[in-house]
Amino acid sequence: MKITWLGHSAFRIETAKARILIDPFFTGNPSFRDETRKDATAGLTHILLTHGHGDHVGETIAIARETGATVVANADLAAWLGSKGVSALEMGNTGGTIHLDGFSSTFVNALHSSAQITEDGVSHALGNANGLVLHFEDEPTLYHMGDTDIFSDMALINELHQPEIGLVPIGDRFTMGGAVAALACQRYFKFGTVIPCHYGSFPIVDQTPETFVSAMDGASTRIETPAIGANLTL
């Protein structure tokens, strides 16, 4: 499995059968490098969305049109994207699993909100925020937490799915901060590898992963903080 962090909460996941973008926030993301866009969307098969905020939906509509990739999202968000012209959609909701070519995606809880303000100035609710657990045929199970705080039912997510790779928000203000994220990882999961995200983008979130990395000191989990656009093979 090849994982590329694209800044903020955006990741490209590449396996033998799938080329996946999660939360493709490119335009307006101060940490995204425009020259990586072509590589990020090359051969794309799926776009997975954790929730409906603009810094996660990002360029989903444009990329889906360009590539023909199937978009996976909660039912409300998928319906909204359909109204915007996205045709290849797989919709689900919390607790449900969608089986796709080479992997499955399960919607799990996240403690966050999910909405967008449209051109007319009206705020539209776009379903519940979720984390996504991806099970692959011959690859480690991966859990993108989405935007969330710590919650005790993370223990159930671990019991049900036993994810080996965690993509964990650490930037504070809109999600849990680094110390709390480290507590979540150590109390509720047995990750082999953790990649922190949702930091280093907007000025009002933490700019470095230092708090998280420090709080994980002594844990057996491998911590990876790749440069934006760098490939990590697991």
Automatic annotation (TrEMBL):
Extent of the signal sequence: none
Coiled-coil blocks: none
Top-rank taxon: Bacteria
Keyword Hydrolase in record: yes
Domain Metallo-beta-lactamase: from-to ranges: 7-198
InterPro entries (UniProt xref): Metallo-B-lactamas, RibonucZ/Hydroxyglut_hydro, UPF0173, UPF0173_UPF0282_UlaG_hydrolase
Record carries keyword Protein biosynthesis: no
UniProt KW keywords: Hydrolase
Family annotation (SMART domains): Lactamase_B
Entry's family note: Belongs to the UPF0173 family.
NCBIfam families to which the protein is assigned, alphabetical: PRK00685.1
HAMAP family tied to this protein: UPF0173 (MF_00457)
Name of the protein in question: UPF0173 metal-dependent hydrolase QO002_002470
Provenance organism: Pararhizobium capsulatum DSM 1112
